[in-house]
User: Which sequence fits this backbone?
């Protein structure tokens, strides 16, 4: 049995590595358990919004250690073909490969003093009076007074301890993506982040993320919509999407099955309970993803950091929930509402895209939000002042349709 740690973090992705780094810096003895051996891949577009780097300046300072590609142009396309391009002065997004980025974050956690046990696949979890007991598949047993569950969308800890009985089908999306070397597939416009809402039928999205040496191309659907409106198998759907983009002259090359991995992302907002005295859920394990954009890395890192803070100052689950609600609660709520509102009627997505194109102040707000020039709260306030009638209408819809 391994004891003697103040906190154990299950999962060494952005949430877990950030929690471990913050705990170690705060003087706690922290141990990360991950079933993988790093560097390991995680299917992901690897789009870091600029605000992520503003929130974590030490990570920004460390980025030259890996390959990155800064993006200043975002192209959005709606069903029916309406489209808009938004240019930003600061890079709006920095594209990274998760195999490199996650390894960097975990290395930074180690450098701060955290320990890491790789190949530790946690299969059994139990809470008792003095702490939490974790059993790995290979028979190792770990115990600590406090655990951070940062083990991703399929979190074993959240399931075993009753936080999450399983995502409802409309709270999780399946994203079918490949990350392929530029020698086999490339974006024709390699400085543009290309996003399409509803590329086919159903509540879907598609994207091209051009990285420095790779390109990520993917298509995703809310699982409830995927089950009812899509007939093709995941790879066939993805390959047809890539072929369509190639025919339009947006990509050069072909889909590559060996680089393809479908994976899920929670899009229904945070779980009802995200912490108890001895257990703190961070990142995908707690449902911390923007349900409209599917951005999750920022929220994983923020909740990992806040979980560490609540543990160091307590441990206090109430403090954790207060901290994350204050920093990201409004965005979590609004994103969930916006995605349900927009995708309930696809013509609303077209109106939104046309609205952004016709209205430079709205495009400015989006650009400031994406690039981190203004916070989400700041942009929200400016939106309400600039467009009071639309804001009031959305507020009424929100209060009548929230569940
Ligand atoms: C295809 C796709 C594209 C995406 N694109 C973007 C994007 O461009 N930008 C963005 O911001 N977000 C994106 N997201 C969302 C983003 O990938 C996630 O929100 C983010 O990875 C969450 O980080 P995390 O640390 O919570 O979990 P993860 O990154 O999933 O890390 C969880 C870790 O836990 C480990 N683990 C799991 N189970 C166990 C266990 N039982 N025992 C031990 N270890 C375990 C895993 O090995 C893994 O290392 C995308 C998601 C998908 C699926």
Assistant:
């Amino acid at each position: 049995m391994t004891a003697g740690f103040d906190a154990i973090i299950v999962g060494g992705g952005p949430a877990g590595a950030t929690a471990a780094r913050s705990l170690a810096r705060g003087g706690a003895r922290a141990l990360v358990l991950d079933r993988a051996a790093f560097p390991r891949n995680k299917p992901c577009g690897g789009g870091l919004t600029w605000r992520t780097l503003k929130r974590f300046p030490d990570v920004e300072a460390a980025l030259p250690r890996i390959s990155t590609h800064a993006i200043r142009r975002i192209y959005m396309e709606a069903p029916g073909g309406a489209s808009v391009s938004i240019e930003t002065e600061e890079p709006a997004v920095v594209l990274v490969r998760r195999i490199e980025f996650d390894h960097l974050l975990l290395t930074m956690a180690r450098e701060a003093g955290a320990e890491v046990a790789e190949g530790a696949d946690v299969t059994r979890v139990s809470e008792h009076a003095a702490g939490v007991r974790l059993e790995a598949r290979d028979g190792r047993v770990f115990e600590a007074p406090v655990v951070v569950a940062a083990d991703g969308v399929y979190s074993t800890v959240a399931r075993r301890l009753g936080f999450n009985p399983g995502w409802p089908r409309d709270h999780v999306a399946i994203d079918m993506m490949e990350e392929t070397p530029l020698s086999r597939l490339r974006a024709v416009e390699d400085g543009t982040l290309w996003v399409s809402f509803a590329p086919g039928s159903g509540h879907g999205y598609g994207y091209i993320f051009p990285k420095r040496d790779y390109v990520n191309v993917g298509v995703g659907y809310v699982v409830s919509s995927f089950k009812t409106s899509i007939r093709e198998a995941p790879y066939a759907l993805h390959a047809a999407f890539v072929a369509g983009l190639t025919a339009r002259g947006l990509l050069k090359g072909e889909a590559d099955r060996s680089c393809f991995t479908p994976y899920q992302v929670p899009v229904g907002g945070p779980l009802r309970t995200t912490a108890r005295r001895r257990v703190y859920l961070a990142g995908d394990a707690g449902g911390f993803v923007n349900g409209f954009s599917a951005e999750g890395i920022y929220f994983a890192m923020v909740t990992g950091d806040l979980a560490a803070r609540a543990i160091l100052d307590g441990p206090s689950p109430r403090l954790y929930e207060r901290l994350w609600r204050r920093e990201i609660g409004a965005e979590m709520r609004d994103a969930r509402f916006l995605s349900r509102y927009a995708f309930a009627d696809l013509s609303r997505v077209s109106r939104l895209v046309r609205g952004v194109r016709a209205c430079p102040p709205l495009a400015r707000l989006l650009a400031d939000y994406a690039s981190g020039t203004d916070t989400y709260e700041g942009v929200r306030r400016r939106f309400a002042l600039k467009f009071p009638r639309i804001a009031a209408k959305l507020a009424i819809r929100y209060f009548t349709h929230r569940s």
